[in-house]
Write a structure and sequence with these properties.
This protein has helices spanning 38-50, 67-70, 76-86, 107-127, 157-169, 185-190, 238-256, 282-299, 317-329, 340-343, 353-368; strands spanning 3-6, 57-59, 92-93, 102-103, 132-135, 174-178, 197-204, 227-232, 260-265, 304-308. It has one domain: Histone deacetylase domain (Arginase, Chain A). β9 (260-265), α8 (282-299) and β10 form a beta-alpha-beta unit. α1 (38-50) crosses α9, α4 packs across α5 and α7 runs parallel beside α11. With 375 residues, it is α/β, with parallel strands linked by helices. It is globular and about 50 Å long. Bound molecules: zinc ion. Residues 180-182, 266, 268, 309-310 line the site of zinc ion. Belongs to the histone deacetylase family. One of its GO terms (molecular function) is histone deacetylase activity. Residues 40-328 form the Histone deacetylase domain.
Length: 375
Amino acid sequence: MKTGWIYRDEYDWYDMGRSPGLIPPGRFVEPGEHLDQPSTRRRAASLVRASGLAEHLTPLPVTAAGDTELLRVHTRDYLDFLISQDALPKGGHADRGTWRTPFGPGGLEIARLSAGGVTAAARAVVEGAVSNAYALVRPPGHHALPDRGMALCVFANVAVAIKAVRHEYGVGRVAVIDWDVHHGNGTQEIFWDDPDVLTVSIHQDRLLQLSTGDVEEMGGPDALGACLNVPLPPGSGSQAYREALGRIVLPRVRDFAPELIVVASGYDASFFDPNGHMLLGVEDYRWMTQQVVDLAGDICQGRLVVAHEGGYSPWYVPYCMLAVVETLAGERTEVADPVAFIVEGNPFQALSADQARALDRVEAALNAAPPRRTL
Ligand SMILES: [Zn+2]
């Protein structure tokens, strides 16, 4: 089993500006470090090397996504807008008028490399050069819409990759499992009317400004059931995620019978994330990944691509990500979760009554409108 590995130094050079945390610039706001610190991914890549795991991975070359690849998802007008922003001496914004998607000078080429990174991973998996692959990319992609960036996302990296392998290799059905703490609204919207791409999102219910991601959103009229949302209450932990994935998501993915599975792996559902309010630890990420690896082995020759999305604890994300990559590679390094004693001993890791009700709501919606079989 070979596991492909995507990472480029330039991903850390993507400049989110000097807004501290998520606070927009303004009077009484001291400039500081943006929530999406470059050091998070650099530290994660460093741990992959320091742990020895890198020796078991197959580095894959990355080429920047070209216009042809991007325009399968995004509009020409949006691409032209980004070209104009890229030319500004201090950069601009990718979401047309708000401060939520900072776009630093030179950002366009790095965003192209990010979309190209996930695409390279998908191509290598579909070609059989590797069994599965991890793409440690930046900026993230799952909020990006066809005509604008959103919430730090410039290009819809996962969607661009899926469209590429479907177009180039005739891949049929694809399932996306998004466990970033935010709703994967961009991926959902892009494939809303496509019955051949199942988009699944497990997320914190209505986190930040996102109003999308409720259980009633199940796909367009010709793709009903090709969209599945599992909104969980803040404070959900180990057991809520295990029930959501094991009881609801994986059976639906198995039933969908995809030829390729793509995981949008954010780490902002981790215990120490400064943005999300969930409780996941290293062993939860390992468990979730193992379930998907096993399912992929059962139903699609192990074809699995994992794309890095959000995750804002510079010191905890690397351990969570390492567990995911270890699981893809079927390896176990000597690195253990250094704060497992805090995470795993937390009494709120059990399933609470409100979390159980949230899961029941998803199941009720599925039973009321059974997914249209696409077989
Ligand atoms: Zn997120």
